[in-house]
Amino acid sequence: MLRSKDIVQRHPQNPAALLDAIRDVQEAFGHVPDEAVTGIAAHLKLSEAEVRGAASFYHFFSLTPRGAYAVYLNASITSWMAGRAAVAQAFEEEAGCRFGEVTADGLIGLFPTSCIGMSDQEPAAIINGVVFTRLTPVKARHLVLAMKAGKPIERMVSEWGDGANQSDLVRAMVSNNIRKRGSVIFGPFEPGSAVRKAVARRPEDVIAEVKRANLLGRGGAGFPTGLKWEFCRKEPSDLRYVLCNADEGEPGTFKDRVILTEIPQLLFEGMAVAGYAIGAREGLLYLRSEYAYIRRHLEAVLERMRQEGLLGPQVAGKKDFSFDIRIIMGAGAYICGEESALLESAEGRRGEPRNRPPFPVQTGYRNRPTAVNNVETLCTAARIVTYGAPWFLSMGTAKSSGTKLLSVSGDCERPGVYELEFGLTVQELLDIAGAKDAFAVQVGGPSGACISRQGFGRKIAFEDLPTGGSVMIFGPWRNLFEIVANFMDFFIEESCGWCSPCRIGNSLLKEKLEKILAGRGSIQDLRDLEAWGKNVRALSRCGLGQTSPNPILSTLQNFRELYEKAVGGRDGFVPDFDLTEATLEAARLTHRLPLLEETSHE
Amino acid sequence: MSKPVIATASLAGCFGCHMSLLDIDDRILKLVELVEFNKSPIDDIKTFTKPVDVGLIEGGCCNSENVENLRAFRKNCKVLVSVGECAIMGGLPALRNGIPVRECLEEAFLNSPTVAPEDRIIPNDEEIPIVLDKVYPCHEIVKIDHFLPGCPPSADLIWEALTALVEGRPLNLTYEMIKFD
Lengths: 602, 181
What we know:
The complex is a heterodimer of chains A (602) and B (181). Chain A is of the alpha/beta class and 602 residues long. Chain A folds into five domains: 4-57; 69-158, 3-Layer(aba) Sandwich (Glutaredoxin); 178-393, NADH-ubiquinone oxidoreductase 51kDa subunit (Rossmann fold); 403-474, Ubiquitin-like (UB roll) (Roll); 480-567, de novo design (two linked rop proteins) (Up-down Bundle). In chain A, 42% of the residues lie in helices and 12% in strands. Chain A is built from 24 helices and 14 strands. Chain A has a six-stranded mixed sheet. In chain B, 36% of the residues are buried. Chain B has helices spanning 16-22, 27-34, 64-76, 85-89, 101-111, 155-167, and strands spanning 5-10, 36-37, 52-58, 61-63, 77-83, 131-136, 146-148. Chains A and B meet through helix 24 of A and helix 3, helix 5 and strand 6 of B.
């Protein structure tokens, strides 16, 4: 029988191996048992608390058994909109346990999880690492019966998606749904072109080209990429790193998944270009756990590139440039999309953000200067190097050059990935995607903005509506408050808990929202929401808390009338407290009557 | 002109905040000059006998009597102040908030090793207030006008706040008064 000790011994006696060791134990046993915690701690010379701390931090690690088949059903809003409730009920009925539980025989565990990057094909679930999309109650029952029959999980996938999803190394039922190909990301690509073009020039000239093209980070924050590379290059150090952020966790975005599936070589060439520009010898791809099913495909592409001389010693024949890429796996944590948390996780710890400054370009991976870039940014940089800045500047707006990949989901006829030039309006996008009667559009995911019809004329561009690419469309029959509540639940779940404004503030905001929805709200509560939201935004330590009040703040601004209707013109202090509710349980235990709430106390 | 009227109560607290109030030392003589006490454990007046200017609340609400008491204070006091962590946050009593009330009562009255077998009953006399499902901070039940932090708030803090309120001048809480570590 496999012992956790043997698994642990395989890893180097180095704290950096912590997450790898936990992952191997988790995969072998379905959880991290106590003796493995002790074993890992002893082997890596860490305290048990550090091991437990890491194991309990990530969604896909667990200290208690998760079942031989661990079902993680996406809980993001697009999943609910596509019928999650009925699918979840079918899973529960057929399996015989509730969400959050494991069946008595330990066979099946049911768990909710945050957005898994399948918003255009919901409801979706990950079961033992295998993705199932477009679930229905019937399919869910079918899956549970197959589990009870002991069928291997890979054999439960009956249909494959489009493109490379059908390849032998992926074999996933995921669809790419590429609806519009632009000329930057999805334009014709000649393998090797970007790397060859880059190494034929001086690194400084590569940076200058990217700066001239005014490439702004595609993850959403929009920091100038060329400047980042320049800072990194100028920082004195023996080693530098390129870290590609493929921890695409913003609910509603899935464009990196499509890049990773269809054109990974463009990304890897972009990483090599970045490596050449900043003077790095190693690149790291931090791949979110949800996309583990693409990993073998990515490894194969890397291997092929090594054989073709596009990675490894003397890249593309350049004598003094050696560069290789390693894949690091995430384990389920939205916060790791924040670059300093990403670095912590890449180094094998809990993904808690670092203090900044120093910035990653100064002190990044293993305390060396590190260029952390988004998948799409690196692909775009590869194209800029190939075709030049003027070509790139001819697209988009004056301040936002080039194209943007948009992940469109929700109430529209054609959900999927669109590559469009910056500067198009929300209404133009809605027309292209076939969203005739949209009532609200969430641009940039929960951390972005919720736009009402009055805002449909706004432009998708850094100077107006910046976005990492998530666009969720809501029809007039949707309940806006359910959407906002779902987003707040997401942030409460994903807050790392390090700083109180985020850890506590988001829960308070959600409670206040629930109070209003329960009919116990007043205009004072709306003022509180606004004031508290601004506090959480201003006082939180990292980007998560600095944007987490946005679902409330932006709907308060753009859909104020819905809130006002919910509080019905009341002002002043309205308590959420109900004496009858509060005394119910103790009264029941002592065979007494709960106290009646006076209907009109002050 | 009559003196401003003060009332105080200790709900789910430890009386530590009241002790801190008494810690004002000889200023207590000035306080007697300055204000008149109404309902308060300090003078043992049990019910409100006149309108009150400032009510000081120690402790949060853990049972139905606390709620009744707090609501009576809100009704009778022009200004209501939460004094100390328990009133503001629930404090130590709120440690039970993560545990269902059933488990708390069963542990205390049925399963604890110190309960004699013949005494195993959850007290159910009609005279006993009913325990709430969790401990609530005061501002979730009534409107609270001011909050004095601390466990307990220092005597200086209470003195400064109280005199400012009755004299109608702005609070001047120095850094030292609200610094706790």
